[in-house]
Amino acid sequence: NSNTIATVAISNLPKLKVLSLRINKLEQVPPLTKCPQLSEVLLGKNFISSLQFVESSAPSLVVLDVSDNKVTSVPGFITSLPELRRLDLSNNDVNHLPPQLGLMDNLEALVVEGNPLRTIRRDIIAKGT
Questions:
Q1: How far is the C-alpha of 54 from the C-alpha of 71, rounded, in Å?
Q2: What end-to-end distance do the CA atoms of the chain give, in Å?
Q3: Cα within 13 Å of Cα(117), Cβ side
Q4: What is the model's pLDDT at position 5?
Q5: Which of 2, 68, 108, 114 would be 45's cystine partner, CB 3.0–4.6 Å?
Q6: What pLDDT does 129 receive?
Q7: What angle do CA 23, 26, 9 make, to 5 degrees?
Q8: Which residues contact 44 (CB under 8 A, 6 or more apart)?
Q9: From the first residue on, what is the mean pLDDT of each consecutive set of 10 residues in the chain (129 residues)?
Q10: Which has the closest alpha carbon to 77: 61, 95, 93, 91?
């Protein structure tokens, strides 16, 4: 099947809990500010390079899967997602993780395989993430 989505517009969806747009051709995702109950965002296998869409949005986000994309950096504001338990960054171009990840009390799974990381800072590992 060659049907894929290249752009997406997400407007006022106050009851949306799961957004799955895996295996498409997305390069950008609009801000998720009007989806306050969103708990899972599944965006694997796209062409996304930035996580800006997460900033100041989705306070209930538990799972963020951006595996197999083109993400190059993890912005510090990711650590302001109080409910985030699983962050999947596997198979991207991330070469640095913000040390604040080690301060995220609820983060249970941090998946970073397949990235050009050389080391993971001790303060990230010390907190058990």
A1: 13
A2: 38
A3: 19
A4: 72
A5: 68
A6: 45
A7: 115
A8: 22, 23, 65, 66, 67, 68, 69, 88
A9: 69 90 93 89 97 82 97 92 96 93 93 88 59
A10: 61
| Strand, helix or coil for residue 113 | coil
pLDDT of residue 114: 97
Lookup: tokens for 80: 């302001």
Structure tokens at 109: 């799974």
Residue 31 CA to residue 11 CA, distance in Å, equals 9
Contact 7, 29 (CB under 8 A): no
d(CA 17, CA 98): 27
The pair of three-digit structure tokens given for residue 49, joined into one six-digit string? 């390079």
> Is residue 19 a contact partner of residue 38, using CB atoms and an 8 Å limit?
yes
**CA 6 from centroid of its chain's CA atoms:** 18
Q: Are 66 and 43 in contact (CB under 8 A)?
A: yes
Residue 59, pLDDT score: 83
Residues 6+ apart with CB under 8 A from 47: 25, 26, 27, 69, 70
CA 103/CA 22 separation, integer angstroms: 29
